[in-house]
Amino acid sequence: MKEVVNNVDDPELLYSDYKLIGTGASGQTFSALYSKTSKLVAIKKMPISIDNAGPLATEISIMKTCTHPNIVEYFDSFVVDFVELWLVMEYMRFSSLTFILNLYEELRMDEPHVAYCLRETLFGLNYIHNLDIIHRDIKSDNILISDTGCIKITDFGFSAKTDTLTHSAVGSPYWMAPELIKSNPYNNKVDIWSLGIMAMEMVEGEPPYFDLEPQDALKKITEKGIPCIAEDKSSKDLIDFFLHCCETDPGKRHSAQELLRHPFMLKSCEADDFLTLCEEATRIKKEQANFFLDDYNIDD
């Protein structure tokens, strides 16, 4: 771990004004001000253990090698008091794509929005795949949105750098490819399967079998396969794109580069249009928060 982190500076002196912006299985994320520039950054604070020290070091090493408009930018990392890792990254105003999908009943993404998110994610995937990096956890939670509407991949905690087939069964259950679940040899095509499931998230509000326990969902994926994306909500181009992503045979599954040439990509809007959607989601969230606050005050 000490080989990949900043062992010189004291992060307590570099950053201030911490505000909690997210909590996940691996730790908490805070916004903070960088004292040298007054720039807003995101700091992910994660406990270090014997079990996760190696994977965390790998995550940092991979993030250091990635410089791309569709990858969240790495700034620095520190081990604090020997028990906690601070991972400093660029701040993303709108949090993750899940922020929008949680408003599925109030705000639907149209196909240009869906195509935009898929296209920008594919730009990032194509870049890391060319570096022999497999992300292994592509899902809406790990797609962040900037203040300009830019889409960026984050969370390389399950990632691996390899130019050969690998076997480790890691990732988020509902998004995992069949060959990964079975611990069969696999390559970066598992990310493409997960991208297809993310397309289903955007169209239907959640991945397939989300009503089942994770182990039951994994069994369904491997034994029954997954249903096609909703045909009554999808154009022929989107359905075809999805089928190329979620082809059971990874040898026939399209690559990121091939999918970037798919006709559905031509439907993509641009960042400004997607930003409008994000701002509408923020407005709805604020209205909901005010409603619940007013309701609480009335009952009180």
From TrEMBL:
Keywords: ATP-binding, Kinase, Nucleotide-binding, Serine/threonine-protein kinase, Transferase. GO terms for molecular function: ATP binding; protein serine/threonine kinase activity. ATP binds at K45. The keyword ATP-binding applies. InterPro entries: Kinase-like_dom_sf, PAK3-like, Prot_kinase_dom, Protein_kinase_ATP_BS, Ser/Thr_kinase_AS. It comes from the Eukaryota. PANTHER family: SERINE/THREONINE-PROTEIN KINASE SAMKA-RELATED-RELATED, SERINE_THREONINE-PROTEIN KINASE SAMKA-RELATED. Belongs to the protein kinase superfamily. STE Ser/Thr protein kinase family. STE20 subfamily. This is Protein kinase domain-containing protein. It comes from Arcella intermedia. The lineage of its organism: Eukaryota, Amoebozoa, Tubulinea, Elardia, Arcellinida.
